[in-house]
Write a structure and sequence with these properties.
two-stranded antiparallel sheet; single chain; alpha/beta; 13 helices
């Protein structure tokens, strides 16, 4: 139903938590002609929504033509941006091409955002991008990565979302992928979900009361006491696990197809549209069929014996893979943290091997179980 398409890896920022290590364009990115053909194949596959990401979409020559083609074939089109180059003219071009929602990445208060984005003034420019889009009648949203630097700033950020008339706020956890793998100090530890989830519950109530969609990402994992509030309208019971390769596909700028845009390139690319039709990749490639074909028998660690194993199946494939090198055991789970708290243990991840420095790469981490420190009283 949903394709997330990295139109180019070229970017005008070098964000410290960027999973794709965006900056320079890939040497073999799809030409405009190839991109337009891929739009046709997306429609033939039955895709309903296309989200264009980067890098930065507006740095791809002909990006407005891609948007126009998506809309002409009856698919909705959204665009995600860091906002650095969203001038009034760029916002107008997006609106006139048919972009239906522009989501700007904002990761906390000004100092925190600028630190994560690697550029002073990035926060101010992101807010300016929102204002430009709204002045043209373009629907706007915000997306946020949650980490140790901005955890305490989420309520302030929620007020920004409301003040700028956003229709939605999507968030996900920063995971140790790409550049974030190089900065372990910014990552939340699994047990810190115990502090995060009550904050999210308060923010969900605040936004929902104002008519703003609260959209927790797939890696904000599952089955704690707030699950129905957070995701009750987003998924049915038969789709309570990772959506990669089930309802979502990811496209890299060179035409490589993955089940999720965030998954590592190595081991998770099912094929390239220069070599195969998109439908053939979607239906036949084992890398894309992983979440369709695997069951709880592939789980390990805590997840193998979890009460929710049949429904959850290990949660976010991307998060688990970037930590342990393989899916099936995901420590970033609210239910799991609550079980540990009740039994007197908690989990931490610690670096074991560094990431090689490639787009969508990851290192490996140890998942350590330890007793709750006595001074904390098992509090988050």
């Amino acid at each position: 139903m949903h394709a997330v398409w990295e139109l180019t890896l070229r970017c005008d920022l070098a964000c410290r938590h960027c999973g794709s290590r965006a900056g320079r364009a890939r040497p073999d990115e799809l030409s405009l002609e190839e991109a337009l053909e891929l739009v046709t194949q997306l429609a033939e596959l039955g895709v309903r929504e296309v989200t264009l990401i980067g890098g930065e979409v507006y740095l791809y020559p002909g990006w407005t033509e891609v948007v126009q083609a998506v809309r002409a074939l009856g698919m909705s089109c959204a665009l995600v941006s860091g906002g650095q180059g969203i001038t009034l003219d760029v916002a107008r071009a997006a609106s006139e091409a048919g972009v239906q929602s522009l989501s700007i990445s904002i990761d906390g208060a000004a100092a925190t955002h600028d630190r994560l984005r690697g550029k002073r003034g990035a926060h101010a420019q992101a807010l300016t991008a929102l204002r430009y889009a709204r002045s043209l009648g373009l629907a706007v949203a915000v997306n946020t990565q949650i980490n140790r630097l901005n955890l305490a700033e989420l309520p302030e950020l929620a007020e920004q979302v409301l003040a700028h008339g956003c229709h939605g706020w999507q968030m996900q956890l920063t995971v140790p992928a790409g550049r974030a793998a190089d900065e372990p100090e910014i990552l939340l530890q699994p047990y810190e979900l115990l502090a995060l989830f009550p904050i999210l519950a308060e923010l969900e109530a605040r936004l929902s009361a104002a008519g703003v969609k609260f959209l927790p990402g797939n890696n904000i994992g599952y089955f704690g006491p707030y699950e129905r509030r957070f995701r009750g309208r987003l998924r049915c019971p038969s789709d309570a696990s990772c959506s990669a390769g089930r309802s979502v596909l990811g496209i890299e700028a060179n035409g490589d197809i993955k089940g999720c845009p965030s998954l590592p390139t190595r081991g998770w690319v099912g094929g390239n549209v220069r070599d195969h039709r998109l439908r053939d990749i979607w239906e036949r490639a084992q890398a894309l069929r992983y979440t369709r074909d695997h069951g709880p028998e592939r789980l390990w660690g805590f997840c193998a014996s979890c009460y929710y194993a049949d429904e959850c199946r290990g949660g976010c494939t991307w998060t688990a893979t970037t930590i342990a090198g393989r899916p099936g055991n995901n420590p970033y789970c609210h239910h799991r943290a609550l079980v540990g708290q009740s039994e007197g243990w908690r989990e931490r991840i610690v670096p074991e091997a560094p990431a090689p420095g490639e787009p969508f790469d990851h290192g490996t981490w140890q998942i350590l179980r330890e007793a709750w420190p006595a001074t904390t009283g098992r509090e988050p």
